[in-house]
Specification:
Length: 314
């Protein structure tokens, strides 16, 4: 009965987090109306940060309770899940082919740059976590890398046609209040999910990192999948790809570090290094696929799904 209780707590916690994240993305988008930026860059920053809120909330909750492996496992696992499982599923769910833009176009350069800097960030994670600890200096370096990486992506993507988000929304105070409520619910849901995962890990004798890498990462990656599908159905391929790639980059930098910046924690460095190297390998494959330009179809999607499946035995 105890096992069923903690499974229910984990599922409910993630359900609340995912639902509240969806509301937060909608409210944040309304607050951002009136700005004009390339669609890929909006997906890579605004949408990605919104859909990455579950991982960030999990990072803070896990670090606060000294469950560093739950934070690191979920963040690195989410990077792998989004680059392979989520990105690989999209051609099978929507349309069959997704435009990546012409080779060496601003859109293509922005996408490929994001994949490459994600791979570099993950290699940095492997190096920083080798001492079985993630502290404030490690976290600060990773957060700074997100800002610097975003600047590089904007440089490559800034000449892409801009996306108008429309007129500034009225009732901005109302949207800000709703956003605040959503953020509180995200934090509460993530806290409940982390407690459920740590209890299950203890009951089953499985490392917290493994449960977070394969279990929590799927739950916290649902917002990216939903947002990407919605964007594709609206004909906004750049927004969809920007969200998936941007969320992966945010997971490898902001998500993994936001909790330890406040609450440094010990982690299993051996598992963290293995997970980071697997995720870096996935990012390199994605960068090479994106470098071709053209289309992301079911063949390239199948390659990514095979890579995700290979992560399990590794």
């Amino acid at each position: 009965m105890t096992t069923a209780l903690w499974i229910a707590a984990t599922v409910i916690g993630f359900a609340v987090t995912v639902k509240a994240s969806s509301e937060a993305v909608d409210d944040a988008t309304e607050l951002a109306r009136g700005s004009r930026l390339p669609p890929f860059f909006i997906g890579m920053t605004l949408l990605a940060l919104g859909t990455d809120l579950p991982e960030m909330a999990n990072s803070v909750a896990a670090s606060f309770t000294d469950n560093g492996d739950v934070n690191v496992g979920d963040s690195i696992g989410s990077t792998t899940t989004q680059l392979t499982l989520v990105f690989g599923l999209l051609p099978f769910i929507v349309a069959g082919t997704i435009s990546l833009g012409e080779r060496r176009s601003p859109q293509s350069r922005g996408q490929q740059t994001t994949a490459w800097i994600t791979a570099l960030a993950l290699l940095a994670v492997a190096l920083l976590l080798a001492d079985d600890h993630i502290g404030r200096l490690d976290a600060s370096l990773l957060i700074l890398s997100w800002f610097d990486g975003s600047r590089l992506v904007y440089r490559d993507n800034r000449t892409d046609p801009q996306l108008a988000l429309g007129e500034k929304a009225s009732g901005r105070l109302r949207f800000a209040g709703r956003l605040l409520v959503a953020l509180v619910l995200i934090g509460a849901g993530a806290t409940l999910a982390v407690r459920g995962m740590t209890e299950l890990a203890e009951l089953w004798g499985v490392p917290e990192f493994i449960i977070a890498f394969f279990g929590a990462s799927v739950g916290t990656s649902l917002p990216e999948l939903v947002v990407a599908i919605t964007a594709l159905r609206r004909g906004e391929a750049s927004l969809a790809i920007g969200d998936v790639l941007g969320s992966s980059f945010a997971d490898a930098t902001l998500s993994i570090s936001i909790g330890p910046l406040l609450f440094p924690t010990a982690i299993d460095g051996g598992l963290a290094i293995k997970g980071a190297l697997v995720a870096a390998g996935a990012a390199i494959v994605v960068a090479l696929l994106l470098g071709r330009g053209g289309e992301h179809d079911r063949r390239s999607g199948a390659i990514l799904l095979v890579i995700y499946a290979a992560a399990w035995p590794i």
